[in-house]
Design goal:
The protein has 259 residues and is an alpha+beta fold. The protein has helices at 17-28, 46-56, 99-104, 128-142, 243-246, and strands at 4-9, 33-38, 65-69, 80-85, 88-93, 107-112, 165-166, 172-179, 185-190, 201-204, 207-209, 224-228, 233-238, 254-258.
Length: 259
């Protein structure tokens, strides 16, 4: 069975960047299966990339190689790495992209890419996706052992992200972590954080909600509601509308759940 390499970038598709990476990979490993996950991560938005990785990567077959390039520090002292976490492999810059994934699937090993066999002979200071990450992913797909990529990295860069807290009265205090393309505002409060309790009130910005719903169609079009997302996080949405636009909710907005 051929190996799988996934690609996630902030490159978009109108420029030759993604195509160049695919060309490098297929030149080295023509039998590999390349799967595009997304090339629409907002430019340089490492946090958004970290959320995407945490949601998508765990669903792939064991030993899938995820090549992820959201890399505002390209060419600087930030390190190019390969990493094993959970049952997946990653090729990416060490800039925090694994922060959220590693909360559920601890990193087993990470290596700095220094072996010339894991990179092209000529390396641009501004396009490591083509010259380092793509060839490194291809070498892993060929069967190269991860430890041959380079020296071990013991501590990875992690993002400073909002943490769910509990106040003296037992209320949960969190934040909106992601607003999807539909305008749904997804928080960092998981179903399990509620411990089976029904909330009496959810506060987000200036908005108050007192009911939990199962699906968007439980309310009339244009009405806001609270429900659990497909990944079991509390979500604020507007049926056939946008919570981003109608409620002015954005990533980082504080959310409080009262019982």
């Amino acid at each position: 069975m051929s190996r799988i390499i996934t690609l996630t970038t902030d490159f978009g598709t109108r420029d030759p960047y993604v195509a160049s990476m695919k060309g490098v990979i297929l030149s080295l490993c023509p039998d590999v299966r390349i799967i595009d996950l997304s090339h629409e991560i907002p430019p340089q938005d490492v946090f958004e990339g970290a959320q995407f990785v945490a949601s998508a990567a765990p669903l792939f077959p064991e030993n899938t190689i995820h090549c992820i390039v959201i890399d505002p520090g390209v060419g600087t002292s930030r390190l190019p790495i390969v990493a094993a976490a959970g049952d997946q492999l990653f090729v990416l810059p060490d800039n925090g992209l694994l922060t959220l994934y590693a909360r559920q699937y601890p990193i087993r090993e990470a290596r700095i890419i220094t072996n010339p066999e894991f990179m092209r002979s000529s390396i641009s200071a501004t396009f490591h996706g083509r010259d380092m990450f793509a060839p490194a992913a291809a070498r892993l797909a060929q069967g190269a052992a991860m430890e041959t990529a380079g020296e071990k990295l013991t501590t990875l860069t992690m993002l400073d992200i909002p943490v769910l807290t509990t106040d003296a009265e037992g209320h949960l205090e969190g934040a909106i972590m992601h607003v999807d393309r539909f305008g749904n505002a997804i928080t960092n409060i998981h179903r399990t954080d509620l411990g089976g309790r029904a909330f009496s009130e959810l506060r987000a910005g200036h908005h108050r909600f007192t009911e939990m719903h199962e699906t968007y169609g439980d309310v009339p079009p244009g009405r806001a509601l609270v429900l659990f997302s497909s990944n079991d996080y509390l979500e604020i949405a507007v049926h056939r509308g946008s919570a981003r636009e109608q409620l002015q909710l954005a990533r980082g907005t504080r959310v409080e759940v009262r019982f």
